[in-house]
Each structure stands twice: as C-alpha cells, then as structure tokens.
Amino acid sequence: MEMLTGKVALVTGATRGIGRAIALKFASEGADVAFTYRSQHEAADSLVKEIEALGRKSRGFSADAADFDSAHEVVAQVHKEFGRIDILVNNAGITKDGLMMRMDEAQWDSVIDTNLKSAFNFTHACTPVMARQRGGSIINMSSVVGLSGNAGQCNYSASKAGLVGLAKSIAKEMGSRGIRANCIAPGFIATDMTGTLPEDVRKEWEKQIPLRRGGRPEDVANVALFLASDMSAYVTGQVINCCGGMNC
Ligand code: NAP
C-alpha cells in the first residue's frame, strides 16, 4: 500500500534539488503533486512529465514564493484544480552569504523574504483549506544552521530558525483542527545550493559528518515522506535533523 494514496501535496521550489526529490517521492507514494518554482520552466515541464509517468496528476506554477498575493493565487488554483490540499512543503530557499559587517539590507531582505516570509505566505493560504478538511501536514525546510548558527550566514540562519518558530506555533495553534506542522533540518546535501562551494570547503564539512558523506536529496525526501504520511500522525511541532549526525 502506498503511503500517500488519495492525498494532494503542494511543494514550493521543486524544480531542483531537495524539492524535486520530495515531489517525485510523494508521487511515487500515490500523491498528486502541485509545485512552485521561480524561473526554470523547462525543469518544471520535465518534472510534471515525470510525475505524470508515475500515474499521478501534476502542475507547476511559476511564482515568487516571497510574494503574498502570488502564494494565495497559487493555493486557490491548486485547490480548484486538485480538489484538496493535504500536504504543504515550504521548501523554496536561497542563500546570499556574507559576514554581518559586510551584509547589506538587500541581502538580508531577499533571504528572509524567500526563505521565511514565503512559508508564512503559503501556510496562511493553505491552513483555511486544511482546517475545513480537518487535517493537513505542513513541513518547513529548515537547516542545521537554523539550530546552531553559522558564521557568514546570519540572514540564512535567522530565516531557518524562524521556520522552526513558525512550525511550533502552527502546531500549537492548529493541532485542534488536525493540522500538524514540523520541520526538517538538513545538514550538507548535494544540490545546486551547495554545488558552488569550493572542493576543500566541501571536504572539510564532510570530515565533520559522523556518517562520512554528504546527504542526497532522497535522504531528505524520505524524512518528508514520514512527516507527510499518517505514519507521523502523532508528531507535531518537531524538528527532525537529516544531517548524517553532524549536529548531534
Ligand atoms: P536548490 O537546489 O538551489 O533549489 C532551490 C529551489 O527553490 C528551486 O526549485 C528554485 O526554483 C526554488 N526557488 C528559489 N527561490 C524561489 C522563489 N523566490 N520562489 C519560488 N521558488 C524559488 O536548493 P536545495 O539545496 O534543494 O534546497 C531546498 C531547501 O532546502 C532550501 O530551503 C534550502 O535552504 C534547504 N536546505 C538545503 C541544504 C543543502 O545542503 N542543500 C541544507 C539545509 C537546508 P528555480 O529552479 O526556478 O530557480
């Protein structure tokens, strides 16, 4: 029996990396999957085709996750076309690293808006639908650096810590309506986001990982599957690290 049969998922930022792996994992477990992305239309088309080849319905929406009105328009359209929304994965994210003393306002604002405000936007739009359904699972893609902090990433770390507070608050506010909210805190995962790091920095990170390897997007998708499914029916307000032990 597939773990998400009959469910509809919405994943933000799914044309690449972790979001893409989650969209495919959910579809392979029986969910219909809507997703958003920023600009990569070809990647979006090919993801739709891959999901449809798994026998599931899919549609990609080009929308800036940081934009409140766009998020509401996407959610209204997904609800209309797919009939329900059971799972929301707030995954869209960017980095614009720099030391605090050199960080400018635009660097701060764009990361906070894309990583944190986006989750507010989509959660705000989806929770009325989920409340009417008397159930839903919201998954925020945080990061180990949201829990530990990281030099050169004060904007990113703050956004990822904010996602934890958001999920814990939604868990308390909406548990009585059957809505669960949790976070995943990935460590070092091989995607475009980490692909720009110099080889020596990557090797240094890997040395600190007890499991002695970087993570794969599929490692994170497996945790997302657990949190999306009824296997985690009594889990809410939690952060699950997916980091090979680097933050233990
Ligand atoms: P990625 O490979 O860079 O992919 C980012 C995805 O987000 C793309 O689909 C991109 O769309 C989309 N996106 C970016 N800005 C957007 C916006 N304003 N509106 C809508 N979509 C937007 O990133 P990743 O490594 O898979 O990371 C996914 C999430 O996991 C992020 O929140 C990241 O912070 C978090 N995370 C990653 C790691 C890691 O090691 N990789 C570790 C911890 C946490 P386009 O393709 O159209 O640009």
Break the fold down into its secondary structure elements and pairings.
Blueprint: E1 8-11, H1 17-28, E2 32-37, H2 41-53, E3 58-62, H3 68-82, E4 87-90, H4 105-133, E5 136-141, H5 144-148, H6 154-174, E6 179-186, H7 192-195, H8 199-207, H9 217-228, E7 239-242
Helix pairs in contact: 1-9, 3-4, 4-6
NADP nicotinamide-adenine-dinucleotide phosphate (NAP) binds at residues 12-19, 36-40, 43, 64-66, 91-94, 114-115, 141, 143, 186, 188-189, 191-194.
Question: What would you note in describing this structure?
Answer:
The structure is a single chain. The two termini are 34 Å apart. The model has no long low-confidence stretch (mean pLDDT 97). This protein is of the alpha/beta class. 48% of the residues lie in helices and 15% in strands. Strand 2 (32-37), helix 2 (41-53) and strand 3 (58-62) form a beta-alpha-beta unit. Bound molecules: NADP nicotinamide-adenine-dinucleotide phosphate. The site of NADP nicotinamide-adenine-dinucleotide phosphate has 32 residues, from helix 1, strand 2, helix 4 and helix 7. NADP nicotinamide-adenine-dinucleotide phosphate binds at residues 12-19, 36-40, 43, 64-66, 91-94, 114-115, 141, 143, 186, 188-189, 191-194.
